[in-house]
Specification:
The complex is a heteropentamer of chains A (247), B (726), C (173), D (184) and E (477). Chain C has 173 residues and is α+β, with helices and mostly antiparallel strands. Helices cover 44% and strands 17% of the residues of chain C. Chain C starts with a strand and ends with a strand. Chain D is mainly α and 184 residues long. Chain D has 2 domains: 2-37; 48-181, no CATH class. The chains are: A alpha+beta (247), B alpha/beta (726), C alpha+beta (173), D mainly alpha (184), E mainly alpha (477).
Chain lengths: 247, 726, 173, 184, 477
C-alpha cells in the first residue's frame, strides 16, 4: 500500500506542483488571446478529424483543446471573461480511468499521463461522462478526409475510426520522440527541447509545457502561487495543468 | 546551380513515398496486402522513418511568417513556426497551421485548363506547352498597354518578375490588391504616417514595450498587418515588470478588445475625435502647455458625438498622462471613414504628444525590406476603381490574375464582374478554383505555396530588414507549374529582343538574380561568398534578415497645426451602421480549408458559417432571436444571414465577418455564409481607401431560422432555456 | 431379476395411494422397492414414505464455493498485468466485494440448476415406466414384486382403490 | 419447420451431416486464418538466405533499424550497387524484375511481411539498442528466401519479451509495460 | 365487497361467492385445468398472426435493420453528443432491467413469504424478467461504439494478458446482468419442467411433441424428481432475491459513482430498486390484463382478486418510490453545490421541465388517487391504465436521470441538449421484440403453472368461524 499523501487526497488543496508528476503545463490566461492557433495546431499534429457543420453544431466537434469564454455584465459594462483553453488536464487521479471496463482509459505510470488506448476502446463513453472537464471527444462517425487530405496524416499518431473515444495526449508521440532521441544520445530530455503542438504554435506563449519533476524547468520557474490555480481542484483529481488568472 | 537541381530531383523522388500514406490510416488491423515502395534512390538528408524539415514562408497572408515544415517520405505533415524568423519567432497562427489543408485540398486545380464559356465550369485539360503558348500569344499579340496584371500581396518575387516583364514590354505596372489591405486601410495609414512622420511607409508600433496602449480599432491580435508579430508583442507587453495596460476603442468588441483592460464602445468613425479629446485632456492633466494641435478640440462635443462620457474621456486622459510609455494605434476600421485621414493623424498625434516616435514602446517606421528602395503598397480601393473603369472602357485586352480573388475580395459595387466582360481574354493562375478563376478563359494553376519557390518582403512586423525565403517542401502534387516559370517560358517563346530582357531559365535563376545584391551585405543572419552558397543558406534558414534593428523615426514637430476631425458621415438609410470585420480564423482565403472552417471564431465560437452580430437588447426590441435569418439591406445590396445576439456591440451597430460567402472555391467554401462586401458602397476617404465602416443598413426579418454551429453552449453561456436569458 | 415383475398402480387420490403403500409395506416390500409418481409435489410424509435424499443443497454450496474461487481469481487478475487507473489501488477493495458476490451467486445458482439435472439424471430420453394420467392429478405407485405373487399384489392394489394395475412397461415418453 | 429440424437432427444421417458441416466450417476458418499468415506474393523472390550467407549484415540493407522507427527497404540503387557487378544479374530469370525496375527507374512494389497494426507505434531503435538481435523477432534469415514471420506479432508476444527483459529493473518495467509506450 | 354480515340462510351463497372470488377456493379437476391451459396455448386467431406479423416487421426493420445501419454508420445517427454521451439506449437498459424485476419479485419474494395469490401468474411474471433482460442486453450493446468488440468486456484468458477492468461499474454491471439473466432463465425453467411434461403427455405428435419432449427432459414426477426440484426452487427463491437487488443497485452505481452533479448520491441504490419494482409491477399488471383479455380460459385463472392484490402492492411501492425520490431530492437540494443546484433548476425549469412534473403526476399522484379504492384496483382495465402510466413515468424518470441530467456538468461551456435520432425506431423495436417474444412464448409454453395452482387449491379450504366463512390455508410444505 502506498503511504497516504495529503496532497493527493485533496485535503490541503491538492497542489500538483507539490505532488509528484512528470509532465505538466502552465496556461497563462492573461496572455491567451483566444486566437485558436493551438486548436488548429493540435488538429494538424494529431490527425483530428473535422466533422462538418451539422455535427459541429450538435456538440460533436472533435477538437482536443477548446477555448472557453463567458460574459460578465451587460452592455456597455460587458466584459468577456479571460479566454480559457480547456484540454485534458492529465489528472493524477483521473476519474475517467477507473470507469472504463476494458482498460482503454488508463494511467501511464512511466509518464504520469492519462492515456486513451484507441484500439482497446469499445465506446461505452463512460469516461467522457465521468470527466469533470468534458475534454473527451468521441468519434460519432467515420469522419472521412477525402483524398488527398489524408496525405497530411501524422504517421506517429493513430488515425481513429468511428466508435472510439479520444482526447489530448500531451503530444505523447513528441514525448516519445524526444525521449528516444535523448536516450540514443545518452542523456536526459532537456527542458524546452520539445514541446506540445499547442504550446509550440501559441503566438502569445500562453501555453508552456515541460517537466514538473525538474525544479529548474520553465514550467516550475513560471509558477506564481498567487495567480496559479487548477481547474476544479476541489474534486481532488490533481490536474497537471496550472492556470494563471488574468492580471 | 547543381545544388538546386539535386534538391528538385530529391523532391520528385520523395514524392514516391506518398503511396505509403494509405497504409497509415484506419484504426483496424492493417491489411497484410499493403504495398510498399522504397525510394529508387535514397535522397540526401533522408533516413527511413525520419522526418525532414524545410524552412519556407507562409503564404496564407502577406505578413510573411517563417515556417518550418515537417515532411515525411515526401508528404508535408505539419507546419511549425521558424524559431529564427524575425517575424514570428517560431510561432504561427491558426491559418498558418492549416496551410496543409490548402496543399492537400481535394478541390485544387490539377491541370492547366481552358473553359468553354466563362463561369460554365466546363473545363478541358491542356498541356503546359499549349498553356505557355496561350500566354505567349497573349503577350505578343496584344498591344502592351492593354495587358494588365492583377497580383495578390504575395509572393514578392513574382511581383518583381512581372514588374520587370511589364517594364520590358512597356505594359502598365502590375496592380496588387488584397482584401486585408482594404480592411487595414493601408493607404490611409501610410499617408497619415507620411504626414505625421514624414515618410511614406508603414509604421511599426512597439507594443512589446508599451506601458499603456490605446488601440483605436486596431485588431492586431487578429489579422491586422502582422498578427503573429503583434501577438508576440502583446504577450511581452503583458509580461513586462509593470503589466502593460490596453484600452481598445471600437464599436464592437473584437477579439483584441476582449483582451483589453478597457473597451470603449464609441460610435463608429469618432475615433479621431476621441483621440484628440483625450490628447487635449491629457495635456491639461499634465499641466503642460496645450499643443496647438488640440486647441480646437471641443471635449463636450466629442463626448456627445462619440457616445463616450466626459468622465470616461477624463479617466482615459489621466491614464495616458500618467503612463510611462503610452502608445496609440490607429486601426483599419477607424481609418475607413470619410474622416479616415484626419483620424489617422489624430491618433498618431497622441504618440507625438507622448514623444514616443523612435522610442521603445513607441512608433517606428517599418524597415525598408531588402532589394527594394521603397514600399510597394497594394492598391487602394479607389485605385482599384480606376482599374475597373479601365477594364470597362475596353482599355484592357488581356487580364492576368494571380494570388488574388477580386470577385470575392472587392465590393460588388465596384463592378469588377461586369468589367471582366469587357476584357476579351482573362487568364487566371489560381491554385484553387476561386470565383475569379471560374470567370476566366484559362486557369493555369500555380503551385501551392508549400510547393513554390519565392521570397516575400516583410512590410510590417519586424524590427529589421527582412526577406523571407520560400522553397518547395514537397514535390508538386498535381500537374501545376509555377506562374513565374510560365511567364518566363512564354517570354522565351515570344523571343526576340524582349526575351533578352529576362534571360532566366526558371524562377530560381530569376530569384538568384534578385538576391545577388544581398550577397554583398555582410551584416545579416548569414554570410556567403557567392550566390549559390548564399541561396543554399537562404533556403536553409528561411530567408535573409539584417542584424541591425532598423527602426527609424525622423524627429518632427507635428503638433504645431491645429487638428480637427470631422464628424463621421454615413451613407444610405437604415437604423444600423454596418461594421464588416475580417474573420480572425478565415480571413480572405481560409474558407476552403476544412479545419479552419471548423476552428471556432474566437469571439462568437461560430463554425462553418457567417453571422450578423446584433446587440441583444436591440434584438429583443425587434423581436429577433438567435439563429433567425434576417435580411440586411443596404443601398448597395442585401444579404441573408443568421443572427448572433452579441452582448458586446453598440446598439446602433451590426457586424458581419468577412471570409465566407464564396460562390466557388471548393466544396468547403462554396455556398457557405455571406460576403459583407456585397453591402458596401463606394465612398472613399482622402487617401483613396474605402469608407467601409460608414454604411447604414436596415434589418428585415425573413421568418426563417438557420442554426449557427457554435462551440459554446447557449445554455451555459447565455442561460438559454433556463428562464434567465438576457 | 427374472422372477420379479414391475407393476404400476394408478390411484385417483392421495388417500388410496397412501393406503396402498401401507399395504405394500405389510406385504413385505421395502421402501426402496417402490416409487411414487405424481403430478404435483406430494411430500413423503403424506404417503408415509421416508425422506428422499437430495444432493441439491450440497451441490449448491459447492457451486457457491467454486463461484467464489473464480471470483477470487478475477479479483486478482490485475496482478497479471499492472494497469493503474485513477489513482486507485491495483486491486480495489469494494469492487472486489461486488465481484465476489456476483460470482458466488452465479456459481450457487448454476450448480443448483445443474444439481437438479444431476440428481434426477436429466435429461433422459430413454423409454421409462410412466403413465401419462398422472399429469391429470393421478398418483401412480410403482413397485417390483415377485412374479409368482403378482396376483396378490394386484388384488391388494385394487382393494386400496387403484383404478388400474398393470405391468409397467418402459415406454417412450 | 421445427419438426423437420428436430427430425433431421435425430436421424443418424443427420448427425453425420451435422458433423461434416461443422468440420467444413472449422476447416474453412482454419484455412482462412492460415491464408492471412502465409507469406504473400512478392515481386521478386528475394533469397534472404543467400544474401545472409554472403555475409551481408542485416543493417546494410535495412539501416533504419539502428536509427529510428523503421528499418526500411533498400533502394534499388543499393541493390544495383552490387548487382551491376555480377554476371548473374544479366542471366538470372529471378533478377529480371530488378533489372527492369532499374532501367525504368520505377520503384519495386514490395509487400511487407513483418507488420504491426497501425495502432501500434513500434520503434526499432530502442530494441536494437537494448541488444535484441534481428533474428529474435524476424527469425533466422539463413533459412528462408522470402522473409517469413516466425511468430504472430501480437501484444502478448511483445509483452512477454518486455517482461523478461525487465525482471530486475522496476523502472524499466514500468516503462516497458506502460500502455502508452506503444499505443498513442 | 362482502363487507356486510350475511344472514345464515345465505351461508351457501356466501361460499359460492368466496369460490367465485378466489381461484384457490374454486378447484377444478386437474385434467380440466390441463385441458384449459392446452387450449389457451393452441387457440390462435388470425388476429394473433396479424399482430405477430406486424411486430415481426417492426423488429426486423426497427430493431435489426436500424441497428445494422447504426453499426455501419457509427453512433452519429443517434442523438448522443457532448456532453450527453449517454442517451436513450441506457434509458432503455435501465427501463428493461427495471421491468425484469417484477418477475423475480413476484415469483421469489412472494414465494418466500408464501403469498398464495401469486400462484397463477408467477410464470407470466418470470417470462417478463427473462424477455425484459434480453431487451436490456440488446440496449446495452446498442449503446456501445464498437459493439463488435464487446467480447472484451467478458473475462476470458487472452494473449494480451489483459482482463476486464473490475474497477469499472460497467464490468460489475455486465457480471450482474449476466448472472441475473442466467438465474432468471433457470428459475423460469425449473418450475416449468412439470408443466412441460404435462404438455408432452397431452400432445399427440408433431413438432410440438418433440419440442415438449426435449424440454421436459424426461420428467416423470417421481418422488426424487419432485424433491430435487422443490429443493432447487427453494434455493433459487432465496438466492435470486439478493441477485435481483444487486443488479439494480449496480445499475444505479453506474450513475452514483460518477463525479457528476446530481448523480453522485448514496440513495441511488434503493431508489433504483424501488423504481424498478414500480415499473415492473406496472408492467406485470398490464401483461396480466392483456393475457386475461386475449387468451382463452384465462378468466378462470386470473381474477380480479389478483389485480386487487397487485394493485395494493403497486400502491405501497408508489409510496416507497415517492419516499426515496423525496429523500434524494431533499439531500441534493440542501447540499447547495452550485452545479447540483443548476441541475435541479434545469430539471424543473428547463425546456424539458414538463417531464419532471409529468413524472411526479403519473408515478405518485395517479396511483395514489386510484389504487386506494378496492373496486377500481380490481378492474383490470383501470389498473392497466395505471400500470401504463407508471411505466411512462418511470421511463421519464430514467430519461431525466440520464440524457437530461447529462446536459448539466461542471463545464457550462459545453452544455447542450439531447435530441434522439435513430434511438426512436430502436426503442420501438425492442418493445416490439419484447411483445413478440412474449406472444410466441404464450403459444409454446403453459403460461399458468398448473401444478402450482393445483397444489394451492389443495391447500386452501373454507372454514366457519362463528358465522363467517373464511379462507384457510394449510401449510403443505
Amino acid at each position: 500500500m502506498k503511504p497516504i499523501d495529503l496532497n493527493e487526497m485533496g485535503a490541503i488543496g491538492a497542489i500538483a506542483q507539490e505532488a509528484e508528476g512528470k509532465w505538466g503545463m502552465v496556461i497563462d490566461q492573461d496572455l491567451c488571446t483566444g486566437c485558436q492557433a493551438c486548436v488548429a495546431a493540435c488538429s494538424m499534429e494529431n490527425n483530428i478529424a473535422f466533422v462538418g457543420e451539422e455535427d459541429a453544431s450538435y456538440g460533436r466537434s472533435l477538437q482536443w483543446i477548446r477555448i472557453e469564454r463567458f460574459w460578465e455584465g451587460e452592455y456597455p459594462e460587458v466584459k468577456m471573461t479571460p479566454f480559457q483553453p480547456m484540454l485534458c488536464q492529465h489528472c493524477h487521479n483521473a476519474p475517467c480511468e477507473p470507469v472504463c471496463p476494458v482498460f482503454a482509459a488508463v494511467h501511464s505510470p512511466a509518464e504520469d499521463l492519462n492515456l486513451q488506448v484507441y484500439n482497446r476502446c469499445v465506446g461505452t463513453r463512460y469516461c467522457a461522462n465521468n470527466c469533470p472537464y468534458q475534454v473527451r471527444v468521441f468519434n460519432w462517425r467515420d469522419y472521412e478526409r477525402p483524398e488527398p487530405l489524408n496525405n497530411q496524416f501524422n504517421p506517429d499518431v493513430t488515425v481513429r475510426r468511428r466508435g472510439i473515444m479520444e482526447k489530448c495526449t500531451f503530444c505523447l508521440q513528441r514525448i516519445h520522440r524526444a525521449e528516444d532521441l535523448a536516450k540514443a544520445e545518452g542523456r536526459e530530455v532537456r527542458d524546452g527541447e520539445f514541446t506540445t503542438a499547442c504550446a509550440q504554435a501559441c503566438p502569445a506563449d500562453a501555453i508552456i509545457f515541460g517537466r514538473l519533476d525538474d525544479p529548474e524547468s520553465r514550467v516550475n520557474q513560471l509558477s506564481k502561487p498567487d495567480r496559479g490555480y487548477q481547474m476544479l481542484e476541489e474534486l481532488g483529481t490533481v490536474p497537471r495543468i496550472t492556470y494563471f488568472k488574468e492580471g | 546551380m547543381s545544388k538546386k537541381i539535386s534538391r528538385r530531383d530529391f523532391l520528385k523522388l520523395a514524392g514516391m513515398g506518398a503511396a505509403t500514406g494509405a497504409a497509415l490510416t484506419g484504426c483496424g488491423p492493417a491489411s497484410r496486402y499493403v504495398v510498399r515502395e522504397p525510394y529508387t534512390q535514397m535522397p540526401e538528408y533522408t533516413f527511413n522513418g525520419q522526418s525532414t524539415y524545410f524552412a519556407t514562408t507562409c503564404r496564407e497572408c502577406p505578413a510573411g511568417c517563417g515556417l518550418v515544415v515537417r515532411t515525411y517520405q515526401g508528404r508535408a505533415l505539419k507546419t511549425e513556426g521558424n524559431p529564427a524568423h524575425p517575424v514570428n519567432q517560431g510561432k504561427t497562427c491558426a491559418r498558418g497551421q492549416a496551410t496543409l489543408h490548402g496543399l492537400y485540398n481535394p478541390d485544387r486545380v490539377t491541370d492547366p485548363v481552358s473553359q468553354s464559356t466563362r463561369g460554365s465550369r466546363d473545363f478541358s485539360d491542356m498541356d503546359w506547352d499549349a498553356a505557355v503558348q496561350v500566354v505567349a500569344d497573349a503577350l505578343s499579340n496584344t498591344e502592351p498597354a492593354a495587358i494588365a496584371f492583377l497580383l495578390g500581396p504575395a509572393p514578392d518575387h513574382l511581383f518583381d518578375l512581372v514588374s520587370d516583364l511589364t517594364g520590358a514590354i512597356g505594359a502598365p505596372a502590375p496592380v496588387r490588391y488584397g482584401a486585408l489591405s482594404m480592411f487595414e486601410a493601408r493607404a490611409t495609414l501610410i499617408q497619415a504616417t507620411e504626414s505625421m512622420l514624414g515618410e511614406s511607409r508603414l509604421p511599426v508600433f512597439d507594443l512589446a514595450n508599451a506601458g499603456v496602449t490605446f488601440s483605436f480599432g486596431a485588431n492586431f491580435l487578429e489579422t491586422w498587418l502582422s498578427p503573429v508579430a503583434y501577438t508576440r508583442g502583446y504577450s511581452r507587453m503583458r509580461k513586462q515588470e509593470k503589466r502593460g495596460y490596453l484600452v481598445q476603442f471600437e464599436p464592437r468588441m473584437s477579439q483584441t478588445a476582449a483582451k483589453a483592460d478597457e473597451w470603449i464602445p464609441l460610435k463608429s468613425g469618432t475615433e479621431g475625435m476621441v483621440a484628440l479629446a483625450i490628447g487635449r485632456l491629457s495635456a491639461e492633466v499634465r499641466g503642460a502647455a496645450l499643443p496647438r494641435a488640440f486647441v480646437d478640440v471641443d471635449v463636450a462635443g466629442v463626448a456627445e458625438e462619440s457616445g463616450v462620457p466626459v468622465e470616461t474621456l477624463l479617466h482615459l486622459a489621466e491614464l495616458l498622462a500618467g503612463a510611462e510609455r503610452p502608445l496609440a494605434i490607429p486601426g483599419g476600421a477607424a481609418l475607413s471613414h470619410i474622416n479616415g485621414m484626419a483620424t489617422g493623424e489624430a491618433v498618431l498625434a497622441l504618440n507625438a504628444m507622448a514623444g514616443n516616435f523612435g522610442q521603445p514602446g513607441g512608433v517606428f517606421l517599418s524597415p525598408v525590406p531588402p532589394n527594394v528602395d521603397e514600399y510597394h503598397h497594394p492598391a487602394s480601393l479607389q485605385e482599384m476603381g480606376a482599374f475597373v473603369e479601365q477594364m470597362k472602357a475596353g482599355d484592357i485586352q488581356v487580364l492576368l490574375v494571380h494570388g488574388v480573388n477580386p470577385l470575392f475580395e472587392l465590393p460588388n459595387a465596384l463592378g469588377f464582374e461586369d468589367a471582366m466582360k469587357s476584357v476579351p481574354l482573362v487568364i487566371s493562375f489560381a491554385t484553387f478554383p476561386d470565383e475569379t478563376a471560374l470567370q476566366s478563359d484559362y486557369i493555369f494553376p500555380d503551385h501551392h505555396g508549400l510547393e513554390s519557390w519565392g521570397y516575400q518582403r516583410i512590410a510590417a512586423g519586424t524590427d529589421r530588414s527582412t526577406l523571407s525565403g520560400a522553397q518547395p517542401v514537397v514535390v508538386p502534387f498535381y500537374n501545376t507549374r509555377a506562374t513565374a516559370d510560365v511567364l518566363l517560358a512564354a517570354f522565351a517563346e515570344v523571343g526576340g529582343e524582349l526575351a533578352a530582357a529576362l534571360p532566366f531559365a526558371d524562377e530560381v535563376a530569376f530569384m538568384q538574380d534578385k538576391l545577388l545584391p544581398l550577397v554583398e551585405n555582410k551584416d545579416a543572419n548569414f554570410n556567403a561568398a557567392e550566390i549559390n552558397t548564399f541561396f543554399a543558406y537562404f533556403q536553409q534558414l528561411g530567408g535573409w534578415w539584417g542584424n541591425q534593428i532598423a527602426f527609424t523615426a525622423p524627429a518632427q514637430n507635428t503638433l504645431n497645426n491645429a487638428m480637427t476631425v470631422a464628424a463621421p458621415e454615413f451613407e444610405g438609410e437604415g437604423e444600423f451602421v454596418l461594421l464588416p470585420f475580417v474573420s480572425p480564423v478565415l480571413a480572405e482565403s481560409g474558407a476552403n480549408k476544412p479545419w479552419l472552417q471548423e476552428v471556432p471564431d474566437p469571439t462568437t465560437t461560430v463554425m462553418w458559417n457567417s453571422w450578423v452580430e446584433i446587440n441583444p437588447d436591440v434584438g429583443h426590441e425587434l423581436g429577433i432571436e438567435n439563429d433567425d435569418v434576417v435580411r440586411i439591406v443596404s443601398e448597395a445590396g442585401a444579404v441573408e444571414v443568421s443572427v448572433y445576439l452579441y452582448p458586446a456591440i453598440r446598439p446602433d451597430t451590426i457586424a458581419i465577418p468577412f471570409g465566407q460567402g464564396h460562390t466557388a472555391y471548393g466544396r468547403y467554401a462554396e455556398g457557405r455564409g455571406v460576403n459583407p462586401l456585397d453591402l458596401l458602397g463606394l465612398k472613399f476617404n482622402e487617401a483613396g481607401d474605402l469608407a467601409y465602416a460608414s454604411m447604414r443598413v436596415r434589418i428585415e426579418k425573413t421568418g426563417r431560422k438557420r442554426e449557427l454551429a457554435r462551440l459554446e453552449s447557449k445554455i451555459g453561456v447565455y442561460g438559454e432555456g433556463l428562464g434567465e436569458e438576457h | 431379476m427374472a422372477d420379479t415383475v414391475s407393476l404400476l398402480a394408478v390411484f385417483p387420490d392421495l388417500e388410496p395411494a397412501a393406503d396402498a403403500i401401507d399395504k405394500l409395506r405389510s406385504l413385505g416390500l421395502a421402501h426402496d422397492q417402490m416409487n411414487v409418481i405424481s403430478g404435483i409435489p406430494v411430500t413423503e410424509a403424506m404417503l408415509g414414505r421416508p425422506s428422499q435424499w437430495t444432493n441439491v443443497p450440497r451441490l449448491a454450496l459447492g457451486g457457491a464455493i467454486g463461484g467464489f474461487l473464480v471470483g477470487l481469481f478475477l479479483v486478482f487478475t490485475p496482478l497479471l498485468y499492472f494497469v493503474p487507473v485513477g489513482g486507485q489501488p491495483i486491486i480495489p477493495g469494494p469492487p472486489s466485494v461486488v465481484l465476489l458476490f456476483e460470482l458466488t451467486m452465479l456459481g450457487l445458482l448454476i450448480s443448483t440448476f445443474l444439481g437438479v439435472f444431476l440428481d434426477s439424471t436429466f435429461p433422459s430420453y430413454r423409454p421409462m415406466q410412466y403413465v401419462p394420467e398422472i399429469s391429470d392429478g393421478k398418483i401412480a405407485v410403482f413397485f417390483n414384486c415377485p412374479e409368482d405373487e403378482r396376483e396378490r399384489y394386484t388384488q391388494a392394489m385394487t382393494d386400496s382403490g387403484a383404478e388400474t394395475v398393470k405391468e409397467a412397461e418402459a415406454q417412450q415418453l | 419447420m421445427i419438426k423437420n429440424i428436430f427430425g433431421w437432427l435425430f436421424s443418424p444421417l443427420g448427425r453425420i451431416a451435422l458433423l461434416i458441416g461443422g468440420l467444413t466450417v472449422l476447416s474453412l476458418a482454419v484455412w482462412g486464418i492460415s491464408l492471412t499468415q502465409a507469406s504473400p506474393e512478392q515481386p521478386i523472390q528475394f533469397p534472404h538466405n543467400r544474401h545472409v550467407n554472403f555475409g551481408i549484415q542485416c543493417l546494410y540493407c535495412h539501416p533504419g533499424a539502428s536509427r529510428g522507427p523503421v528499418a526500411g527497404l533498400p533502394t534499388q540503387t543499393k541493390c544495383w550497387g552490387c548487382h551491376q557487378q555480377m554476371q548473374i544479374t544479366e542471366t538470372s530469370e529471378l533478377l529480371k524484375p530488378l533489372v527492369q525496375a532499374v532501367e525504368n527507374n520505377e520503384p519495386i512494389q514490395w509487400v511487407p511481411v513483418a507488420i504491426v497494426p497501425d495502432f501500434v507505434q513500434f520503434n526499432h531503435r530502442p530494441h536494437i539498442a537494448a541488444g535484441v538481435n534481428c533474428e529474435d523477432c524476424h527469425g533466422d534469415m539463413t533459412q528462408v528466401t522470402i522473409a517469413e514471420n516466425p511468430q504472430v506479432f501480437n501484444m502478448g508476444w511483445c509483452l512477454n519479451c518486455h517482461k523478461e527483459h525487465s525482471v530486475d529493473n522496476p523502472e524499466l518495467r514500468t516503462k516497458l509495460l506502460d500502455c502508452g509506450t506503444c499505443h498513442y | 365487497m362482502a363487507s356486510t354480515t350475511m344472514p345464515m340462510e345465505h351461508a351457501h351463497s356466501e361460499e359460492a361467492h368466496l369460490r367465485e372470488q378466489h381461484l384457490m377456493l374454486d378447484p377444478r379437476p386437474r385434467g380440466e385445468m390441463n385441458a384449459m391451459i392446452m387450449e389457451a396455448m393452441h387457440y390462435t386467431t388470425w388476429k394473433f398472426w396479424v399482430v405477430a406479423a406486424i411486430l415481426g416487421a417492426i423488429v426486423l426493420v426497427g430493431l435489426f435493420g436500424s441497428w445494422g445501419y447504426m453499426i455501419a454508420e457509427g453512433l452519429g445517427v443517434a442523438g448522443v453528443n457532448r456532453p450527453v454521451f449517454w442517451g436513450i439506449f441506457l434509458v432503455n437498459t435501465v427501463f428493461w432491467i427495471g421491468i425484469s424485476h417484477a418477475g423475480t419479485f413476484i415469483s421469489a419474494i412472494l414465494r418466500v413469504f408464501k403469498s398464495e395469490f401469486r400462484r397463477p401468474f408467477t410464470r407470466a411474471a418470470e417470462l417478463m424478467t427473462t424477455f425484459g433482460l434480453v431487451q436490456a442486453g440488446f440496449s446495452i450493446f446498442m449503446h456501445m461504439g464498437r459493439v463488435w468488440l464487446s467480447y472484451w468486456l467478458f473475462p476470458y484468458p487472452n494473449q494480451r494478458q489483459l482482463w476486464p477492468n473490475f474497477h469499472s461499474p460497467l464490468s460489475w454491471d455486465l457480471l450482474a446482468i449476466t448472472t441475473y439473466l442466467l438465474a432468471s432463465t433457470m428459475y423460469l425453467f425449473l418450475p416449468l419442467i412439470p408443466d412441460l411434461a404435462m404438455a408432452r403427455d397431452r400432445t399427440a405428435g408433431g413438432w410440438r411433441k418433440n419440442f415438449y419432449k426435449v424440454l421436459a427432459l424426461g420428467f416423470r414426477g417421481t418422488e426424487g424428481e419432485w424433491t430435487h426440484l422443490r429443493n432447487a426452487m427453494n434455493i433459487f427463491a432465496f438466492a435470486i432475491i439478493p441477485v435481483m437487488f444487486s443488479v439494480h443497485t449496480i445499475v444505479s452505481w453506474d450513475f452514483a459513482v460518477a463525479t457528476r452533479p446530481g448523480w453522485n448520491s448514496t440513495i441511488f441504490g434503493p431508489y433504483f430498486v424501488i423504481g424498478a419494482l414500480h415499473s415492473g409491477m406496472g408492467a406485470v399488471i398490464m401483461v396480466l390484463a392483456v393475457v386475461r383479455a386475449t387468451m382463452k380460459n384465462m378468466k378462470y385463472f386470473i381474477r380480479p382478486e389478483h389485480f386487487d392484490a397487485i394493485g395494493k402492492l403497486m400502491l405501497i411501492i408508489s409510496m416507497g418510490w415517492a419516499y426515496f425520490f423525496f429523500n434524494d431530492y431533499m439531500v441534493q437540494w440542501y447540499g447547495g453545490d452550485k452545479w447540483t443546484e443548476a441541475l435541479l433548476h434545469w430539471h424543473e425549469a428547463g425546456p424539458m421541465g414538463w417531464m419532471w412534473f409529468l413524472m411526479l403526476i403519473v408515478n405518485v399522484a395517479i396511483p395514489w388517487l386510484v389504487l386506494w379504492n378496492k373496486r377500481w384496483r380490481s378492474n383490470p382495465w383501470i389498473v392497466f391504465v395505471v400500470g401504463l402510466l407508471i411505466n411512462v413515468g418511470m421511463y421519464l424518470e430514467r430519461y431525466i436521470i440520464i440524457p437530461i441530467s447529462l446536459t448539466i456538468n461542471r463545464m457550462p461551456f459545453t452544455w447542450r441538449m439531447y435530441e434522439p435520432g435513430i434511438e426512436i425506431p430502436l426503442s420501438i423495436g425492442t418493445l416490439a421484440f419484447f411483445i413478440l417474444l412474449y406472444m410466441i412464448a404464450s403459444k409454446l409454453i403453459p403460461l399458468v403453472p398448473v401444478w402450482e395452482v393445483q397444489e394451492g387449491q389443495m391447500a386452501h379450504s373454507m372454514k366457519k368461524f362463528g358465522r363467517e366463512t373464511v379462507v384457510t390455508v394449510s401449510e403443505l410444505e
